[in-house]
Amino acid sequence: MIILTGLVSIIIFILYIMDLRKHKFTTKTMVITGMMSALSYVLYMVPLVKYPQGGGITLMSMLPIMILSILCGRTAGLTGGMIFGLCKILNGAVIIHPVQFVLDFILSSMALGLADTFGHDKKYKIICGGLFATGIALCFNILSGALFFGQYAPKGMNVLLYSCIYNGSSAGVEGLITSVLLVLVPIKRFFKGRSL
């Protein structure tokens, strides 16, 4: 299972690099990507709920990456998510395996950059995009929890169920709240008179 997950991760990175080669970054996009990644990290440093094996609920650290995706597109969102994931290591990350590192810190953060999947012209498309990005990120966290943190599950409990409960009550709750907050952000104002 770990080998299969590793291969899927490699395929995702190859697709991302191909996407990156098609969409060149302007200076403005690079600056916005850096600023939003840094803002996500600053918000990540403010934990509202902290869990014993890592994770928890932060001060909406997912929001800037989702906004970045909506403003600058998927490639910028994925890149900002990757930078944010790498910054999370500075906060004392628990890394027990290279595949776990990729799932928990790279792919789950990059998935937040998929918030613009359904577009941004209607509020329901924005919330659907936020929920979609959160769902993909949560899948990576759940997979990592089931593969690498199953020993923390209560005796007799299925490790996948434990991972779903653990990650759903932390990253899932934060993602749900963030998706709702995303609708309250005046996205159209950012687009008025500006081309990113």
TrEMBL record:
One cellular component term from this protein's GO annotations in UniProt: plasma membrane
Any single Pfam family the record assigns to this protein: Thia_YuaJ
UniProt-recorded Gene Ontology molecular function terms: thiamine transmembrane transporter activity
Residue ranges of the TM segments: 29-49, 61-86, 92-114, 126-153, 159-185
UniProt keyword annotations, A-Z: Membrane, Transmembrane, Transmembrane helix
InterPro entries: Thia_Transptr_ThiT
Domain of life the protein comes from: Bacteria
Protein known as: Thiamine transporter ThiT
Species of the source: Clostridium tagluense
